[in-house]
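// run 5 | inverse folding | seed 20
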């Protein structure tokens, strides 16, 4: 099977392998990094055995905490499986919902996994639903209506969105679900950034709106624990969940036991709230800082402030491809992701606000110097 990395991942490999990488400030981080002690100050018992818990779906207690903490309405533990991150949940859902060559609609720009899985693994017929800046990076429902056909099998969404930070409201989610229902398509909504909404209104979860919705989510971003590798998949259709689980048993078989234990602790209601709030405090401070900075540079750069997630997608006002822009920024020891790495994102950069405020301030000073250099061209 031919699988080549997309421009997004090629870019990450490019900057991660620069000889002076350690001197650079990453201004594109989509999640924080927290130590284990923030979740379990007492640690994990050294007596913990590393055998497989033999729960084919993920520990029941963990699935109960997922349902409760995410406010999934009227779901039982049979509707949820624990996965190795959101990536695995996305992959399982796509494998279970699609046959080779099926028609899929992908929101773009978004996390590039959907494109890779649909193109390289499922050889699906991909149609893009472009999110546009003038529509606050939200899907245009009329355009979606024009794109769907009776052959459409899946609509793949991501909100709060990576890379733009756009969030759907309940009416928008309902409208999309109605379109999917009319043509019988599944909705797969990657909700990895849910709970990180800057107006404090938790955004709608697809699984609460439509029987053929699949929610893929996890703790990587909300808590800043990418290495925990804990995510989940939720769907009202239990037969579909079983099918996803069958794919999981023949791929990763089980998630990691330490991750399951930490996730069960992290999802205790009070703990979860505290951990999410700690991240949001930093995010809010950083967004304010960047907003102020962008106002001061309004001829050079502009943005739609993010509704959720640590991702933002500013537009730069220079006649230059985003890859060129980001390569030149590396000379000033700051890292962005070129918007052109996402279909529909050229002319923008992904700026992440998940780093600590002091590093962000330092990064913005370097960004100042970089923009000054561009004015002199
Ligand atoms: C939208 C989106 N989905 C999934 C992932 C991967 O998540 P996980 O670490 O839970 O597998 C990422 C990582 O950046 C992401 O941005």
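// decoded
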């Amino acid at each position: 099977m031919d699988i080549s990395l997309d421009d997004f991942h090629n870019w990450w490999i490019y900057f991660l392998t620069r000889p002076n990488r350690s001197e650079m400030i990453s201004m594109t981080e989509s999640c924080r990094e927290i130590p284990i002690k923030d979740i379990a100050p007492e640690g994990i018992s050294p007596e913990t055995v590393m055998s497989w818990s033999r729960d084919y779906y993920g520990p029941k207690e963990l699935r109960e905490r997922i349902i409760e903490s995410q406010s999934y309405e009227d779901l039982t533990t049979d509707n949820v499986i624990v996965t190795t991150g959101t990536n695995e949940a996305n992959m399982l859902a796509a494998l279970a919902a699609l046959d080779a060559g099926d028609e899929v609609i992908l929101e773009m720009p978004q996390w590039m996994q959907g494109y890779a899985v649909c193109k390289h693994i499922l050889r699906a017929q991909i149609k893009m639903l472009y999110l546009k800046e003038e529509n606050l990076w939200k899907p245009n429902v009329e355009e979606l209506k024009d794109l769907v056909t009776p052959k459409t099998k899946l609509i793949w969404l991501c909100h709060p969105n990576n890379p733009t930070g756009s969030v759907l409201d309940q009416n928008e989610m309902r409208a999309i679900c109605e379109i999917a229902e009319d043509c019988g398509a599944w909705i797969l909504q990657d909700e990895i950034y849910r709970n990180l909404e800057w107006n404090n209104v938790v955004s709608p979860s697809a699984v609460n709106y439509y029987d053929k919705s699949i929610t893929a989510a996890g703790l990587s971003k909300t808590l800043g624990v990418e290495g925990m590798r804990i995510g989940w998949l939720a769907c009202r259709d239990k037969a579909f969940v079983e099918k996803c689980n069958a794919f999981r048993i023949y791929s990763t078989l089980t998630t990691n036991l330490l991750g399951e234990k930490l996730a069960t602790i992290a999802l205790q209601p009070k703990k979860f709230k505290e951990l999410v709030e700690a991240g949001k405090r930093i995010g809010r401070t950083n967004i304010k800082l960047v907003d102020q900075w962008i106002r001061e540079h309004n001829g050079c750069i502009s943005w739609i402030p993010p509704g959720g997630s640590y991702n933002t997608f500013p537009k730069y006002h220079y006649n230059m491809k985003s890859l060129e822009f980001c390569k030149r920024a590396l000379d000033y020891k700051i890292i962005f992701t070129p918007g052109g790495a996402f279909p529909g994102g050229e002319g923008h950069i992904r700026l992440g606000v998940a780093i600590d405020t002091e590093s962000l301030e330092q990064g913005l000073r370097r960004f100042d110097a970089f923009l000054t250099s561009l004015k002199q061209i």
